[in-house]
Predict the structure.
Amino acid sequence: MSGAASRGHDIRGRAHWIKTLARETGFDICHITGPDDLDEARADLGRYIEAGYHGTMAWMPETQARRGDPRVLWPDVRSIIMLGMNYGPEGDPRDNLARPEVGNISVYARHRDYHDVIKGKLKEIAQKFAARTGAEVKVFVDTAPVMEKPLAAKAGLGWQGKHTNLVNRDFGSWLFLGSIFTAAELEVDPPERDHCGSCRACLDACPTGAFPSPYRIDARRCVSYLTIEHKGPIDREIRPLIGNRIYGCDDCLAACPWNKFAEVAREQKLRARRDLGSPLLADLLKLDDAAFRALFSGSPVKRIGRNRFIRNCLIAAGNSGDLQLAESCRRLLSDQAAEVRGMAIWALAQLGALTVSDEAGAQREPDDYVREEWKQAGLLP
């Protein structure tokens, strides 16, 4: 066999071997691409940041150069192994939206933190690949400045739908992504073409109108961003639109017609915990910091902290129309966190449960934001 033929055999053989290993390790799909030809994605990222659609996520412009070019992140990368793990739910996650007494948690956060699950498996694959080939490797899951969705589309795992998330013909919109960068040369896969056609189900499903146009999302109106990334109060005009979504939002993902081919996640650690499927707001509003940490141990919800989470639950309570939640909200008027006190005022006002007896608390309030909530509620001039 000639040198060129031998090299080609190695490139194809390594690619086939790692795809087989990925499947054996628990991934549902694995394709390979290179670090080049990301000009369009890089330009799109620049336009996104220029428009301010990233909101308060300052890390996006700070990491823009590395995010836009894998070789800036790691100059030695020659191949990028993109892997997907199905986290398909057992039912429609939007069913909870018709139950105002419960808090709706995004599907991806109803189980163990996927970063931990996927990163462990990526490291296992990467170590075996490095031992077999002698090539240097690096693994990334979500938190690193890697444009996972454009790279996944380029590798053929799927295409970026009009909701900007990856869509796969076999798994719909329910894929977690991870990547392995390697200095080894591997045979690359062809990209997947866009199969959205004229469908706009995901765009029409958004409760807050966060899509200014297809394939473009304004995080500042996105429920997932507002309930997870955004600190402090949420704009008053958007609060009623959030409904009972207390952590993330699956509406645009769940509306995708390609989900009809998706199966329930085969990885047990990614299946929903029963206690997080439809938790009662009355129970969640009682959580102090210790109880919050205990309930969400191992869950990505834990990362936003108790105060932001209770803020979200209070919005849901205010939108519920359930006067039985009023007493739970009233107890939070004296919470140590200003963002909690402020949202408790709003929730009680929405429920029509504020009384003149609450005026004394309004007069004593030292925080400007909370005082503004009292003013909006009519108990301060």
The CA atoms of residues 56 and 364 lie 31 Å apart.
